[in-house]
Amino acid sequence: MKEKLSVLAILVCCISLLAGCNNHQKKADKTADVPKTLESFITKKYPQATILKFDKEKNSLDVKIQDKNQQKEVVFNTDNQWLYTQWDIRPEDVPAVVMDELASSAYNQYKVKEVDAVEKPAGMFYIFELQLDNNQVKLTFDSEGQLIE
Fold first, then answer.
1. Phi first, then psi: what are they for 53, rounded to 5°?
2. Chain segment 36-50, per-residue pLDDT in tens
């Protein structure tokens, strides 16, 4: 009986180990699907980046990268054209001109919940998620501090 339990325990361990290897292989294969044109663009634009994940969405191709110490999402259209790159940013890392414009806006009493940096072919943008009591608002500023929406 003890031999059967020992053999069973060894089999369970082997199966678990193989399943773990299989999951790792699936994750590794996910980045292998990145089209060469996208990979080339990312290597050129973000030379220190590592590709973490690739997803084909209905209307876009999304590539998650690690660029230095920052995770970013690089988004392309279905024709492999770069649309934008987006990542979380701390308010203290937003350019002063943008923060000054926010401070002088009608939303200066709102608390900053989250800020995203968005790099597009047209330039840099900062999307603020703000809240005051039960009111939430999203504002977008360009790198010059102009309120876009």
1. -160, 150
2. 999 999 999 999 999
